[in-house]
Amino acid sequence: MSKVYERLAKHLKDGSVCVATILSGPSAGEKVIWRGSRILEGKEKESWQEVMGAVNQSEASLPRIISVPTAGETAPADTRIFVERLMQEPELVICGGGHISLELAALADYLEYSYVILDDREEFCNPFRFPRAKACICGAFSDGLAVEKEFSGNAYYVIVTRGHQADLECLELILQHPYGYIGMIGSRGKVARTMAVLQEKGYSGEQLSAVHAPIGLPIGGQTPKEIAVSIAAQLVEQKNRQDSASYLDRELLERLARKQSGRTVMATIIDKQGSAPRGTGSRMLVDKNGIFCGTIGGGMVEYEAGRAARAMALEETGTEPIQTVSYQVNNRTAAALGMWCGGEVEVMLELL
Which of 16, 232, 256, 326 is most open to solvent, judged by the fewest CB atoms within 10 Å of its CB? Predict the structure, then answer.
């Protein structure tokens, strides 16, 4: 099953995907990954098409557990299936290495956002100025934003270059490829002129209205630090506004890409009722030594789920490819389980 996650990571570079995992029955553990109406991973079966159609047409938010009422080889009656929309964790692409970028990079470090710096001035784009950047790409913006750089389809682009012409160049290049967010700095007048030029070039009002310009939440920031705070706040807002998506963080993906010795178990929150520290879709990896990557919220819920996953990794609980465990608490025991009030958390354990 780890191979499925490795291939999933590659699909996420092209944008979000939907993933369905059978939780019970003879096909427990079987997955299908799709985008739109096209199956990317999994067996082409009529029952999967039914699941995909129900999810694609539904207005209900994901992730969630659904029951398939029709009988079939892959999805017999009353089979529970966990469905989620997955996205790659946002990577910031900061166009411009000036004062605002420097302050924004510090906030990105604090928020644990991966970021790349682009600028055509070496003194503003180097690893000494941005020691924790994933990369500093010094050269023409047209080269730095080329498609072969393989920024993901969920990349967050922040345009804060030194001038109007460079801003325009970056925006036009970015609009030609998939993205998760675009923000551009500038006064309302400068923004209006930029949009007018792009409209004349044939870009639609819908395309241009998706650009956050002027960039940042309107908190009246004046200094580079204050402007960076407004931008970072808008990035967080954008990320959490997509409440129908689960994210695979880069550390987890990197761990999955490595060859692990022994059995590894993925623990995922698939349902919660009441209050819990982390939402549905949160993940952690566990091996025979315990939790080594990710979190499902800490506290006793994570501890107990970690124990169950470790037992699975040690082959103490059989060889089933998938198990589910539930933790119920009341108001009296909630604090001990790391929850603010009573509720229930269900966790899926997948043997990788």
Answer: 326
